[in-house]
């Protein structure tokens, strides 16, 4: 209804992505509902009162006409065309592979708008603030008095001990441990942060991955952000393809349906611009993973990890998957629940 919005705000970029995706199919009904208040002739209603009511409702009628006109001309840059005063898109979470949704919005619906993630939150606590709104990749200054944070070095040669804020090194990665909520003491959040520098004496960090989203069927441990990089590199070898969304499954979750083959990955993709992939194209992802991860290549060569299987799913499959997750939460890149696996398997078209 409000044409004069200055900010679009969402908890997750995926929520805004899904809302604007719904706009693409539901805009005729949306416009119709906006003008439902338009008065038809009603016997017994005084003409003066009818004119006053119509004057109050006429902005909604005009807005409905504008929505019809703008949506009929396509959806590239639709956010600025529907709300010409927009200045920024604010999302409360934009970590690691969640940037996939921001990139998709920047390229199409929200073209021309900057994205800003103002705060860093984990384990229900506010931990840091983003002082660089113009930068595309958010970085956060950790604020010492907002919560008590400890850090587990990721490359420790032996059992690591936690270190504190003043012991962090630039360029290194750490697992985050937080004490903030009553009754929750030294909680491992499962998030890995990279120290990118310091603001005065406070560390500046970038969230890079979630430990639970690591792929590993033989102990090879491929982190989610590095798998995503290999996947994006593969897409550059598929002319015309644009990645909408993806999820991975370790074959152990498939049970008997995976057959007698060696443990392997199954990847479900939603693509735009390609209806199908040849076997040669499908193998490119496995090939890129072997090039990017020598341990994976070694297991593939020995046959202890089988070839990756790639599936294409129908449009909006991941919107329905996120709905099945319940309350808004960052998209899992490695599915661990059979119910969610069955949902995405039911959407496979190739």
TrEMBL record:
<dbReference type="Pfam" id="PF23572">
    <property type="entry name" value="GH3_C"/>
</dbReference>
<protein>
    <submittedName>
        <fullName>GHDC protein</fullName>
    </submittedName>
</protein>
<dbReference type="InterPro" id="IPR055378">
    <property type="entry name" value="GH3_C"/>
</dbReference>
<dbReference type="GO" id="GO:0016881">
    <property type="term" value="F:acid-amino acid ligase activity"/>
</dbReference>
<dbReference type="Pfam" id="PF23571">
    <property type="entry name" value="GH3_M"/>
</dbReference>
<dbReference type="InterPro" id="IPR004993">
    <property type="entry name" value="GH3"/>
</dbReference>
<feature type="domain" description="GH3 C-terminal">
    <location>
        <begin position="234"/>
        <end position="324"/>
    </location>
</feature>
<dbReference type="GO" id="GO:0005737">
    <property type="term" value="C:cytoplasm"/>
</dbReference>
<feature type="domain" description="GH3 middle">
    <location>
        <begin position="140"/>
        <end position="210"/>
    </location>
</feature>
<dbReference type="InterPro" id="IPR055377">
    <property type="entry name" value="GH3_M"/>
</dbReference>
<dbReference type="Pfam" id="PF03321">
    <property type="entry name" value="GH3"/>
</dbReference>
């Amino acid at each position: 209804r409000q044409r004069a919005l200055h900010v679009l705000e969402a908890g997750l970029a995926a929520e805004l992505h899904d809302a604007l995706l719904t706009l693409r199919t539901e805009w005729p009904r949306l416009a119709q509902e906006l003008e439902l208040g338009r008065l038809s002739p009603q016997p017994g209603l005084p003409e003066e009162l009818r004119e006053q009511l119509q004057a109050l409702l006429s902005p909604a009628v005009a807005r409905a006409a504008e929505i019809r006109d703008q949506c009929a001309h396509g959806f590239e840059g639709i956010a600025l065309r529907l709300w010409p005063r927009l200045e920024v898109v604010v999302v409360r979470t934009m970590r690691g592979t969640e940037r996939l949704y921001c990139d998709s919005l920047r390229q199409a619906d929200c073209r021309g708008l900057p994205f800003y993630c103002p705060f860093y939150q984990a384990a229900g606590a506010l931990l840091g603030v983003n002082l660089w709104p113009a930068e595309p990749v958010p970085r956060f200054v950790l604020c010492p008095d907002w919560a008590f944070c400890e850090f587990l070095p990721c490359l420790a040669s032996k059992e690591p001990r936690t270190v504190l804020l003043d012991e962090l090194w630039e360029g290194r990665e750490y697992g985050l441990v937080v004490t903030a909520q009553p009754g929750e003491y030294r909680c491992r959040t499962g998030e890995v942060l990279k120290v990118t520098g310091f603001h005065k004496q406070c560390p500046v960090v970038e969230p890079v991955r979630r430990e639970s989203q690591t792929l590993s069927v033989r102990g090879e441990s491929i982190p989610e952000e590095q798998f995503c990089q290999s996947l994006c590199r593969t897409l550059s070898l598929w002319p015309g393809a644009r990645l909408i969304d993806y999820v991975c499954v370790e074959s152990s979750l498939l049970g008997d349906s995976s057959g007698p083959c060696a443990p392997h990955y199954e990847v479900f993709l939603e693509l735009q611009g390609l209806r199908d992939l040849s076997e040669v194209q499908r193998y490119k992802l496995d090939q890129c993973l072997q090039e990017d991860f020598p341990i994976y290549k070694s297991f593939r060569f020995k046959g202890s990890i089988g070839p990756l299987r790639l599936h294409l799913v129908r449009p909006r499959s991941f919107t329905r998957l996120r709905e099945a997750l319940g309350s808004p939460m960052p998209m899992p890149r490695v599915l661990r629940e059979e119910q969610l696996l069955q949902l995405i398997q039911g959407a496979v078209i190739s």
